[in-house]
Amino acid sequence: MAQEKIKLTKKVYDKSSAGDLIDRSFSEIINLNDSINNVNLDNNIKRLFTLYNDIFYDIPKVGKQSHTTLFKQSRDYIGNYIDSKDAEIEALIDQIVDLEQKLSNQDQPNEEHPFYRNGTLIVDREAFWNIYYMDRATRRKLGGNENSELFKDLLAATGYKGDNWKDGVTFVSPQVISKLTPGPDFGPEDLGASETNVEEERATFEGSFNYNALQDGELNPNNYPITEYTIPSNYDPSGFYNSFQLANYNNDITRQIEQTNIANISSYDKYREYLRNRIIIVWQSEKRFEILKDKYENDTEFGFTESERNKAQILRDAVMPKIRQAQETLVYYKRLWTFVKNKSANSANAKSLMLEAQANFEDNINTPVTDNERNDYGGWNKGQNNFPNIDLEGLTSSTGEGGNLY
What we know:
By secondary structure, the chain is mainly alpha-helical. 52% of the residues lie in helices and 5% in strands.
């Protein structure tokens, strides 16, 4: 039998041409036609991740087909990807910038005015209550006057030990003072060894006034009883055996009437005294918040660093609700004080005033405060006449012009 030769041929492709013939994309693994079938899609995804895990360490870290490429494609597909480390990095950068600024300020010697050295206490010779502390070549205004504790502490810090404070300060004309560069106001917190942060300073006033007039039961005059004694209807002087017995009975009735009158006057006085004390307390709180607001606004404009100015703005915004709350409380107090502003001269007067206060209480306490009513107390020094027979002016004038918070 003749042998037949069969010729076998093998076509060999080089590396460059093989890349054009073989599809190495994900379509080799996932059939796009299967995307309409959830079961097939799930299976293909599982196959993909199985293969990915098998060759994970064989995939290059960088390059066209690498972990870097997969990461970038996935990140771009997700969109708006935020790495938690980025926020940490930004916070650390801000902290570094703040520390560098503080370090820069420490490295630089404090500026000093050529005539008024830092630490000098300057007083306006035409208005003694205008006192300034020279710091970094700026004038920093003090709250209060020469009688304030802050002034006394600063005067002692300068080394002055004399009896007359005028010998320890420098008197300057208002014209010259106006030419000095203004700085942030100077308060007791500036005497501290360390600077307080926003949270610490907010805590000094946020927790100091959580009072709600609508929940204060002692403001209700109905809780201070007013009674009236009436002679019994069966009272018959002719029914007594003798004048001595009649006199004893009359004396007993008179005594009970007097006791009732005394009790009514006591209720009036107790209610009036409680309301008076509350007015003074809230008035002083409003005053404190207003002074803090003025200080923060001053620091916002004249603070030495951006950090100080930003801190002052935050604190100014935080104290504003406290001012509003205190002013609204004073509005309620004004409404109630109208009925008990005068001391009770006699039992009949006390009784009628308390009955009137009781009859109007619900309407006064439940009527919302208007902007016009609240505006009567702007600047804490405004609206003192709303509380006759309470010397609110005396509470401030004793501390000098503008009062002294501290």
